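hi support,

uploading two proteins for the ticket. first:
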Amino acid sequence: MHVLLTAGPTYEPLDPVRFLGNRSTGKMGYALAEAFAAQGAEVTLVSGPSHLPDPASPRIRIVRVETAAEMFAAAAEVAAKTDVWVFAAAVADYRPAHIAVDKIKKSGETLMLELVKNVDIAATLGQRKRAEQFAVGFALETTNELAHAQDKLHRKNFDLIVLNSLRDAGAGFGHDTNKVTVLDAAGQIVNFELQSKADVARGLVSLILARLTPSS
């Protein structure tokens, strides 16, 4: 089995010094890569900027990128050849319309930025997904969590979606622990209580593999 897995943030440059980004560390995605590899999968890990060390498993090939466009290109290159897609990266929805050649100097009381929409990696690849491929998305929400996650599940052609709520203590960006809710298109819900991201990753991988191998 070959798994495509995205992880970490994307950085969208504003000038040679500054960028638009988010607080994702990549910990959850990297833990998932290790968990898949431990089950014998070959993993292509497309990682945004992260301070985490490269995964130790020789089954994991890491491709480092910076922007959403670079992440999409790297993911699209291998998507057709992989069996499972897991979109755990926190991809920037927008990027600056113009990247300044030189550092933007402080001038005036306000600075207006024009932003343009980035490619939606999961949704775009989801349009190309074959019936035998299995796609898992992540949703980090702050309000109406279940409704937003269910919308993404259907709109992006996911088989499962993993919901994080920033209202849960010890979950989300920067933590070594996580608490998630997994939803599928049939309306089934599986809750993972607060535990290490490594344990959450192992549980998610077991759940995914069970869906790939239906009981007779």
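and the second one:
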Amino acid sequence: MDTIKKIAEEKMKKTVKALKEDFNTIRTGRASANLFDKLHVDYYGTPTPLNQVANISIPEARLIVIQPFDKNALSGIEKAILTSELSLNPNNDGKVIRINIPPLTEERRKDLVKQSKNVGENSRVSIRNIRRDVNELIKKGDFTEDEQKKGMDDIQKLTDQYIKDIGIIIDEKEKEIMEI
């Protein structure tokens, strides 16, 4: 039973970690290198993470500078940024790419909050699915009725805690997006 509980908790932790990583890529009004965590560049025919082909720096609050290790990658980086869902406009000067982060409009902020809530709700669903799968394991396991009841109660407490944690993370992201 303890093994099953540990497996459930590990899966729930991974779900929360994935949510935080997803939230890092949702743009707020500030410049952040995390925006590009999931961005891949076509580098000599191979999709390569941007941070492996370029140095990303934040010299000012609303400016991102991307300096490729290989100047031949400039156009690929620029194309990857333009075709991404980030809605950013890169400026290529032949050596580096500069990206000004425009302030978010009220409408765009509301869209980002809605997107954040959807991502968060998907994480909640994942937690509930983990609970369901673990409860089925407990029912099929060789446990007494009392052990099954206690195990399922423990899994429910874990589920409640992780869903509460996800709610806190969503609220923090919403505040971050809505601050001017």
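thanks. also noticed: The chain has a mean pLDDT of 91.
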